[in-house]
Write a structure and sequence with these properties.
- This protein is α+β, with helices and mostly antiparallel strands and about 260 residues long.
- The chain folds into two domains: about 5-110, no CATH class; about 130-250, Gcn5-related N-acetyltransferase (GNAT) (Aminopeptidase, 3-Layer(aba) Sandwich), CATH 3.40.630.30.
- The chain contains seven helices and eleven strands.
- The chain has helices spanning about 5-25, 65-75, 90-100, 135-150, 155-165, 210-225, 240-245, and strands spanning about 30-35, 40-45, 55-60, 80-85, 100-115, 130, 170-175, 180-190, 190-200, 230-235, 250-259.
- Pfam families: Acetyltransf_1 (PF00583).
Length: about 260
């Protein structure tokens, strides 16, 4: 596993750990925990509507046995984590995963971009992007756009809201004239910027709002001294295409889940 991939996964894990703390403080349904064990980065969430958050990452050949043990213990507690592998394991370790009751699931993408120079803002590329600070009406407007763009409610919406109220969260809106149409967020962990949380209102999609938000966050991250930006996406998704156009390298990670 490369040092960049490892740094990116640690930053994503710190973001997830902060979100778990926020969810507990906001009394979102379920239990939320994040920890590191012998090189494995674990996130455990008990509410079934948030299953996608339960992951074991940072997996390489040497940590496969630890991951298998954590999966077994998690299943006994009613949690079915996805094991996310960032390197080629080889036939022996893949056989060990299958012997541990795991099967291949859909792959996941880790998007990486070095920030050696500050991305420029040319020709109004991120025109209309405004920061959203603090609390109050501006934050409420940001959350309303973010959740409406996702089209979620219930426990999922409560979790997303709790996460994006975090003080460490940097939030941005795209305005069309004076109307907010898209939202995105970012956190910084050491020298790594995690770009996460982004949505556009359905009626305004296809107008480049997310590309503007992406470029703007890259510039803000570079100006803050970050050397690496990281994001996640589904293979062949619109998000993956946007990230590729913005200069990200897409690193495919295999995913394994309990059969």
């Amino acid at each position: 596993m490369s040092s960049e991939v490892r740094s990116a996964e640690w930053a994503l894990h710190r973001r997830a750990a902060s979100a778990c703390v926020a969810a507990r403080e906001a009394a979102v349904a379920g239990d939320f925990h994040a920890w590191e064990q012998e090189g494995v980065l674990a996130v455990s969430v008990t509410d079934s509507s948030l299953d996608f958050l339960s992951t074991l990452s940072g997996i390489g050949r040497e940590t496969v046995p630890v991951a298998i043990d954590l999966v077994r213990r998690s299943v006994r507690n009613g949690v079915r984590p996805t094991v996310v592998v960032s390197t080629e394991l080889g036939e022996e370790m893949e056989t060990a995963l299958r012997a541990g009751g795991l099967v291949r699931a859909g792959d996941r993408l880790l998007a990486l971009r070095r920030l050696d120079t500050t991305p420029g803002s040319t020709s109004g590329a991120d025109q209309g992007v405004v920061p959203v600070a603090g609390n109050g009406a501006a934050l409420d407007a940001f959350l309303a756009i973010l959740l409406a763009g996702y089209g979620v409610d219930g426990v999922v919406a409560a979790f997303i809201e709790a996460e994006h109220r975090l003080p460490i969260m940097r939030r941005f809106l795209v305005l069309e004239r004076t109307v907010p149409i898209a939202a995105a967020a970012m956190t910084i962990h050491g020298e790594v910027a995690v770009l996460g949380g982004a949505s556009t209102l359905r009626e305004y999609r296809g107008r480049g709002a997310q590309s503007r938000l992406l470029r703007h966050r890259l510039r803000v991250a570079a100006e803050a001294g970050c050397g690496l930006a990281v994001a996640t996406a589904g293979p062949e998704s619109v998000s993956a295409a946007n990230l590729r156009r913005a200069g990200f390298r897409l690193h495919r990670r295999s995913a394994w889940t309990r059969a």
